[in-house]
């Protein structure tokens, strides 16, 4: 190998390193931005403007519907969802949020993404089971 080709290889290696590190920075920035979007840019512990409230809702379940079947929250809210069976034995699952409640249970979720989250009964409760659906709508603040 002559001197010229060694220099060439060295340059290629350096260029590759620069490209890799530039890429790495970009990835990190994206991750940071995603983090900021989720938590808001306010310092830790400070609720994001408009959202970030602690809210709670009790969903009543009977044969065969949820009441309310639809409810809303804002991005950043800490929402505690409780399930109360008023008739029959039902569960409440919100698959996208990892929530699955039995009667009398509750779960607290931090809503960091706007969207519509479907929920459904998670216990085979009878003929109307498949109709036991509802949705949580999370809106930007
Ligand atoms: Cu059911």
From TrEMBL:
<keyword id="KW-0732">Signal</keyword>
<dbReference type="InterPro" id="IPR028096">
    <property type="entry name" value="EfeO_Cupredoxin"/>
</dbReference>
<feature type="signal peptide">
    <location>
        <begin position="1"/>
        <end position="21"/>
    </location>
</feature>
<dbReference type="Pfam" id="PF13473">
    <property type="entry name" value="Cupredoxin_1"/>
</dbReference>
<dbReference type="InterPro" id="IPR008972">
    <property type="entry name" value="Cupredoxin"/>
</dbReference>
<feature type="domain" description="EfeO-type cupredoxin-like">
    <location>
        <begin position="52"/>
        <end position="138"/>
    </location>
</feature>
<protein>
    <submittedName>
        <fullName>Cupredoxin domain-containing protein</fullName>
    </submittedName>
</protein>
